[in-house]
Design a protein that fits this description.
This protein has 2 domains: 3-180, Roll (C8orf32 fold); 222-277. The chain is 59% helix and 9% strand. It has 12 helices and 6 strands. The longest helix has 18 residues, at 40-57. It starts with a helix and ends with a helix.
Amino acid sequence: MQYKEWRAAFDHAVTLPDAKINLAQAALLIAADEYPELDISFWLARLDNMADELRSRFPAQRDAQTVIPILNTYLFDELEFHGNLAEYYDPRNSYLNDVLERRTGLPITLSVIVLALAQRLRLPIYGVGLPGHFMVKWRDAENEIVFDPFNGGEILDRRGIEARVRASSNPILPFQSDWLEAVSTKYILFRMLQNLKQIFVRAEELQRAWQVVDKILLLDPRAGDEIRDFGLLSLRLGANRQAAISLEQYLLSHPDAADADLMRVYLRRALEQVERLN
């Protein structure tokens, strides 16, 4: 399939109400940028088989104290899924098919595997978007248990959560209770795409960054920073008409932004290029 077809498939997947979005399918559609011949059904079946294996191991009474150890043993001891510290910024850590194949990835993609299995098994496990480090939590009427798929499913108390955030994001950041709020499926996809955007921008992989920002804007068409960056990437790629459209949109909605004057310079540059080609 071509990029436009994969883009349309992603757009369709994420326009559903959040609770109905198939997280694993949408995450695999992100990977289609890198793998245009990706067989999404193959990888969804892989997750189905993993869920079936876990289902056979669970007792009739599924409580947190029983299920989490079984889940952790299967994923992190038997299958040996693990966080990729050595090659943290390898894009493959953000592509779900690669993570399933290589059994290593980022905190968020390893969490996506847990969440995808939880969806299939109807387990009360939710994403937790901590600053700098994504985790999951079991939440029911009796328990709220946070555990870290990047570190073998380690269960963390408040002090452990604070320490992990300080190690990965901000060494002086105090614990905030809203860190533990369950995040939406769209937020998870947005954060996965943000990781890829940072990788590709840093590596000057402009076309790949452009495709990532294009998808971010499907998730949130009013994201000001992404509209601006889409314009700037378009300008650098020679897509001057799109650059002018995006930069003008950014300035109309953010006329007093700190970078507004600079963006007006880029907008004029894009418009000059458009006029020159007409």
